[in-house]
Amino acid sequence: MATNYGSLDGQNAKYLPGAKSSALKVSLSTVVLTAITSLLIVLFGGAAVNIIVGVVVVVYVFAFAAFCYTAVPFASNAILVPFIAINMQLQVVYLLLAFAARGFKPAFPQWTLAYELTVMMMRFAFADYGHLVGNKNAHLLRMPFHLHGKFIPKSNSRLHGTVPEKLEANGMEHMWLRDDPHQDQADPQGEVPDRASVDVLLANYRMAPQFLYPTALNDCFAMYKYVLEKENIAPNHVVLSGDSASGEMTLTNCMRLRDTTPELKPAAALCYSPLVDLGETGGDDITPHCLLAANFLDNSLETYLSSIDDPNKRSKVSPINQNLKDLPPAFVQFGTLERFYEQGLRFKANADSQGVKNMELDLLENIAHDPVMLPTAVSPATEDAIHKGCAFAAKHLAPILKA
């Protein structure tokens, strides 16, 4: 069955506590380290110098090895790996010097040093080498994320009171994060009943460049149907959620459900930094502080959509060009520094012009693309960003769960 979506075969963010780096702490740490080093030299003379130099060399060797591992996805051949690693190290030094020159303050009040290093290093790598990781080396870029996803669920589940549970379905491995039955399920906002349980399914899907449009879209749709049919969960008890490209798939599959089986629409949709205009290109000069450089994003989208030759059909892929009426309540969130910010504003304007009343636009001031993908230790906006989406979902689920 063919549809427009492929074959079926604002508000300002509040400043967050602790978001501003303390120049005093950095200065005190530097003074203490210098004092300790000087004391060791006075007490032990040349031996202390040799020890310090030896420690520095060992630390650098391990750091360089880590940079080389990081550089692998961005290299067209193995010979270039150490040179790219050195280039990355120089970029880190440049960012640290810029941080010091600003009086040990991040580029924006909402940033931390860790967030600035993460965003700008990703920007640097995608700007210079994005054409490789968006196509030829995509599988290499996924390896660290695969390892992270393999080992981190248990520790995170202990932290958040959930139980990870692997699921084999539709030829792929997925993961449930089940609520721990021994944990208190009370909602701090009082929106949902005390005994409401929230389970999260992390659905897997096949990715480009090996699998082109609409494979990923169909995989996500199939997993939604699996939840309804095999897990026996009512659609009005389901919230679809996705970030970045998955945010686009969330919106598009809601449109598919509206047009084919409206009775199966989910209770709500949460979309963090969703890609809503797949035809937009460039933009590096407008969003210099976003991690999504055009060299990466434009090449990735060209590869993903290479299965569609007709320009008119390509334009229909973008949610921004679709009918936005009669969709589930939707929460869409963007950072004001990200590549998708302007298209997000246009998307909400289109919804308003069509008379849509159940879409909420949330803007995170001075935040780059997709803060929810980063841990809270790195991104100061992560917790607030997720909290707002969860509050939106709770508001729309409350009447259903209380019925």
TrEMBL record:
GO MF terms held by the record: hydrolase activity
Alphabetical list of SUPFAM superfamilies matching this protein: alpha/beta-Hydrolases
Domain Alpha/beta hydrolase fold-3: 194-369
Transmembrane intervals: 26-44, 51-72, 78-101
Keywords: Hydrolase, Membrane, Transmembrane, Transmembrane helix
Domain of life of the source: Eukaryota
Protein name per Swiss-Prot or TrEMBL: Unnamed protein product
Taxonomic classification: Eukaryota, Sar, Stramenopiles, Oomycota, Peronosporomycetes
